[in-house]
Write a structure and sequence with these properties.
The complex is a heterodimer of chains A (113) and B (111). Helices cover 0% and strands 57% of the residues of chain A. Chain A has 113 residues and is an all-beta fold. Chain B is mainly beta. In chain B, 0% of the residues lie in helices and 62% in strands. Chain B is built from no helices and eleven strands. Classes of the chains: A mainly beta (113), B mainly beta (111).
């Protein structure tokens, strides 16, 4: 059982749909992250939020739009995705200091048809 | 470009065996190296190694950081079927919030 929850756990969507992924952390952390995990590829960092401000954006296509309304919640809004966007999307949180590990949520398995 | 490489990509052993997983890195301004275990979905934290803490041990698991060789190993002794998972290595660098992950080593322990 982790202190980071994600919904939905599975999502199937068409290329023209709009959907959102939700992440919530109950650990009192002040930084939150979105990662993409594709088969046989390393975890790719997508976005980092610190104290609700986006501090890193790793050249992610604009069809992915993050939102961090407060330090406990993080969203990833999806629109006009491509089949190659199918992957496991993991949310993580941590304290924002150089020597703190990240705690991960269970992920959302996304399939784009 | 910063990168982290793990080897082997996959490994099959029998219960009771000892395994050694490798992680090598090429990054600027190394800060820390982390090991995670990923069983079903969420990676769970195992160890963090830094310049001031190059060796960690917890039960049957231990890890060492070799800053000269730019690498780390994760040892698991007396393996059990519950050790079957993907083991991820991640490296953090100074001046950034991100960790660079390797592709992971998939370990399968047979009964």
């Amino acid at each position: 059982e982790t202190g980071v929850t994600q919904t939905p756990r599975h999502l199937v969507m068409g290329m023209t749909n709009k959907k959102s992924l939700k992440c919530e952390q109950h650990l009192g952390h002040n930084a939150m992250y979105w990662y993409k995990q594709s088969a046989k590829k390393p975890l790719e960092l997508m976005f980092v939020y610190s104290l609700e401000e986006r501090v890193e954006n790793n050249s992610v296509p604009s069809r992915f739009s993050p939102e961090c309304p407060n330090s406990s919640h993080l969203f990833l809004h999806l629109h006009t995705l491509q089949p190659e966007d199918s992957a496991l999307y993991l949310c993580a949180s941590s304290y924002l200091s150089p020597y703190n590990e990240q705690f991960f949520g269970p992920g959302t398995r996304l399939t784009v048809l | 470009e910063d990168k982290v490489v793990q080897s082997p990509l996959s490994l099959v052993v029998h219960e009771g065996d000892t395994v050694t997983l490798n992680c090598s890195y090429e990054v600027t301004n190394f800060r820390s190296l982390l090991w995670y275990k990923q069983e079903k979905k969420a990676p769970t934290f195992l160890f963090m190694l830094t310049s001031s803490g190059i060796e960690k041990k917890s039960g049957r698991l231990s890890s060492i950081l070799d800053k000269k060789e730019l690498s780390s190993i994760l040892n698991i002794t007396a393996t059990q079927t519950g050790d079957s998972a993907i083991y991820l290595c991640a490296v953090g660098t100074s001046g950034t919030y991100k960790y660079i992950f390797g592709t992971g080593t998939r370990l399968k322990v047979l009964a």
